[in-house]
Amino acid sequence: MSLKKNIIALRQKKAIVEKGGGDKAIEKQVAMGKMTARDRILALLDVDSFHEYDLFVEHEERNFGMESKVLAGDGVITGTGTMNGASICIYAQDFTVMGGSLGLKHARKITKIMDHALKMKVPCIGINDSGGARIQEGIGALAGYGEIFYRNTMSSGVIPQISVILGPCAGGAVYSPALTDFVFVVENISKMFITGPNVIETVLGEKISQEDLGGARVHAEITGNAHFFALNEMECFEQIKELVSLIPHSNLKKAVSVEPKEPNFKKNIGDIIPSDPKQPYDVRDIIHALADDSKFLEVHELWAANIVIGFGRLNGETIGFVANQPMYLAGVLDCDASDKAARFIRYCDAFNIPIVTLEDMPGYLPGVDQEHAGVIRHGAKMLYAYSEATVPKITVILRKAYGGGYIAMNSRHLGADFMLAWPGAEIAVMGPEGAANIIFRKEIMEAEDEDAMRQQKVLEYIEKFANPYVAASKGYIDAVIEPSETRELLLHALEVSKNKDDYRPAKKHGIPPF
Amino acid sequence: MQTEKTEYVDFAVTARKYKTLLTKKYINRKPWVDPNPYEIQSIIPGTIISIFVEEGDVVNEGAPLLVLEAMKMLNRIEMPFTARIKKINVELGVRIPKETIMIELEAVDNE
Predict the structure, then answer these.
(1) How far apart are CA A466 and CA A428, in angstroms?
(2) Minimal CA separation from A438 to chain B, in Å
(3) Which chain A positions have a beta carbon within 8 Å of B14's beta carbon?
(4) CATH, residue A493
(5) Is B52 contained in some domain?
(6) pLDDT at B15 over 80
(7) Mean pLDDT of B39-63
(8) Mean pLDDT over the full length of chain B
(9) Same domain assignment for residues A93 and A241
(10) CB contact under 8 A, A366 and B11
């Protein structure tokens, strides 16, 4: 055979496998409102940049009639390409090939590309769309999952790992996304659960739909398993591209910096916060007023909305923002908020992203449900994460900083590099009402008019203690600043921190309370 | 997630009430109820396999009340303290959800 004929044969062979499960299966996939695995990869990566690996890998199962089954690419597409010009490893499970079920070879294609990503220090993106373990392959499928989890763990904190749930992701399959850094879900398409509705109904008699059990909204809003929520696949891909443009591509690098742009927020930063500490506002307005170009990519937007986390830029460099959100639950810290912030802080620390903390919070949320849900253990995660982090850590106290929350929100005591406070800040052991009730208990009880006395004592406490100057007099606050100076001072603090070097005792690893 | 300002509610954290919005999860949280020792509740959903007692029986602490099959395990539910069976709310072979009051007890007078 001439070379030309060989080339034609190769092209024909490729064309067949590239069809995945074939026209009928593709039609079905599209009818479900889903893109095909190949189209997803092509939509995510830069045009003409995708190079496929292991197209001709075949399964080796010889039981249950599998010996005669040909599965294109064994149900998963793997390869490399570029996103915004930077190298990326990627895989996408192909639901049109035996439901995207995971057999050993399918898993080995995934682990091969994961190994590649870790070695080359490039991000790894996994698109999940699979019915689960290929039951015919039995323990081989389980081995495959385990080998993926192991690599997720090895890559954790070294290269960014992103999971995109674009179909079912059930049973053992859910643990790979859970081990990765960011999980993306799409309404009506993503489904994640350990045991599905059928099993739950058979075993426990509880009836629930797939959507209510583990749909995109459930994971974005209730469980926190998903970090980003989109209404359709294309919106999801845009979110991924934006995230990948903001984060460093390995723990040895810094994020690519861009030309700095001044914020263009419509409101004056000093006019956002109501002077009455009981009145809410949207803390994202403050972030927009501070960040370059007023751009902010929020992570976990719908879950634990009482704390806001996400990425923006200051002077062209990527920054992680952590901010209490008075608009929801008065901005308290609770189990979910602590969990959410702590993991984000650890992410920023692992990937050399400075952290800016914006504080306005009344304390930890009281309640039996919180105490029983382990708010002690979850709350401690924040203390751990902030204390452990060695990236530049800057705090701006916007308004309230009470009690345990004051300590938790990157206080000087946990190793903050810069502590700034606005003049309206109230840094105290608790809210004035509570403090006055305790300290002046006797005077209040003995007064003829208890309410009048309480009111007087509260005002006295506010006058003396509900301000930033007590903390500043002790050096716990470096500077009391005007709101309009904030951005300038953040840029300055980051400039000063450029070569920050902070040591931690040598250890194998710490034992955070998770 | 953006909601109208009119939905701000008073939210008490220690002695002060803040104007804020509530999250879905917070609204749906289960309020704490003091457990009633005279109510035997299912702690897991399952099926009633056997019932060993009848209404009106005085049953000693530790004696078996019923068997609840859940997650392929036969869970023997025992009497928490000596008392009289006031009411049995479950039937053999019936599947019950979690936190069903299966049996109600009443104190035995010291005769």
Answers:
(1) 6
(2) 11
(3) 362-363, 366, 430-431, 433-434
(4) 3.90.226.10
(5) yes
(6) no
(7) 94
(8) 89
(9) yes
(10) no
